[in-house]
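Researcher: Dear colleague, please comment on this protein.
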Amino acid sequence: MKNKKNIIYAVIAVVIFIALVALNNLGLLSRQYQGLLVPIGVNIMLAVSLNLIVGFLGELSLGHAGFMSVGAYAGCLFTVHANLPAAVEMPLAFIIGGLAAAVFGLIIGIPALRLKGDYLAIVTLGFGEIIRSVFNSLDILGGSGGLKGIDKSSNYIIAYVLVVITILVISNLINSRHGRAVKAIRDNVIAAESVGVNVVYYKILAFVLSAFFAGVAGVLYGHNLAILKPATFDFNKSIEILVMVVLGGMGNIPGSIIAAVILTMLPEVLRFLADYRMLLYAIALIAMMLFSSNPTLVAFRQKIFKKKVEGGK
């Protein structure tokens, strides 16, 4: 049954890739939508990797943009100063960016062992803001003006391959013994510990792996824009990624993928409305949150309604 599922997913991945290549080669995709393919890939990687922490581990993290920025600067700084063939340079940049972010994921994962809920959210939020301030003050990284001279070498094929790798690794982890342990921690930490689950190990594993793929997404992002500015990786970016996870469903990888695609494309689809597009984007986002049948959002709305009723009494 598991092998049958993997075969189906592999066929779907190949079909989507062939369709993308065909649409691009036949000129059926406008320049506007061609330019969206890499950002869509970046956001899918960010949403799926954050879902590992928020959805499957059950911890609230508001510092995912910080992990992304660490990976972006580490990988792009390497390519700016390394004079290597592109076939060697790019894979090394992705590995360096991912590992640099993973180190910070380990650093953040350690206090996560003692903190939960709002307290962990504050720590991760603080991490993101500290990292942004550090990047602003480092001349070697271009300061507030940004890191320039990055090769614009990302394309939709590289983005697609990285997206597939991210989804494969995280989905296989979730469906493994490790994944069941992570979900057991989310459901009840005390019960998980009582049956021999190493809570320390699995929490750190989730943070490190999530940070790794956020870092890789950052490198892909940097090589798509050819410039990195610290202001890009602010609190709003972390919230944007979190919204994709919540809208798609916490603990739901296909949902995260769909939400990432929709929320990346929506501002561009509404571009013809000029000054009103961001207003309508916000309205559309609120409407999706209110009327979605996603179990996560339904539970959230019920919780809010219950509080309102109790407050009225």
Remarks:
- The two ends are 51 Å apart (CA to CA).
- The CA atoms of residues 247 and 289 lie 7 Å apart.
- The longest helix spans residues 86-112.
